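To whoever is on call:

I kicked off a structure prediction for a single chain this morning and the downstream step that reads the tokens threw a length-mismatch warning. I double-checked the sequence; it's 224 residues and nothing unusual in it as far as I can see. Pasting both halves so you can look.
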Amino acid sequence: MKITSNLNAAETPNASNLTEEASSSLTSEQYKRKMQRRKEVQSERLAERTKEKGLIIVHTGNGKGKTTAALGMVLRSLGHGYRVAIVQFIKGAWEPAEKAAFGRWDDLLEFHAMGEGFTWETQDKERDIQKAQLAWDKALTFIRNHEYKLVLLDEINVALKLGYLSVEEVVAGLEQKPDRTHVILTGRGAPAGLIERADLVTEMTLIKHPFREQAVKAQAGIEY
């Protein structure tokens, strides 16, 4: 059944705004009761969720922040004393600042930047494919190793999108991970087969970018 509305986007009520407006009109006592009820509901939800499992996590989309969000999980895992491995596909022609920043965790972290840069820089498809396969072979050694709690495969989605690796090959490799190991796969253009297999998928949406709108170059501390 198709439902149509005469409201345009600007006139359509926003649920979040309506909730905020409703809350702001409550008395202090009404607000307190509402928050108490909300706490009860949240406590019930938390009590029901007792499972633990290693997750397959995908960060994709055209917006910035895919690798940055993944590195936040890396930092969190290192803070817990877990062993972590990072394998960077595509990237590798330069020394990323994050590699230097994480250098103090040499005892817990394996960091391998195994690409040779953007495809328009390398201009050698066969070599790019070879490098992607080598990076995947290295990634598999960590994915299969139960000692690693988190494995980050940075920009692997781009390698998949370009056909340097097959979706079937990568999904089959992910099935070999131990039950408690988390694997994060970043990069725009994540294929449907990977998204279907993943437990957690986040799409970064591009709204504005200074490179496009203001001709601002990539800057240290922001892009690299």
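Update from on-call: the warning came from a stale cache, not from the record. Cleared it. Sanity check on the structure: The radius of gyration is 22 Å.
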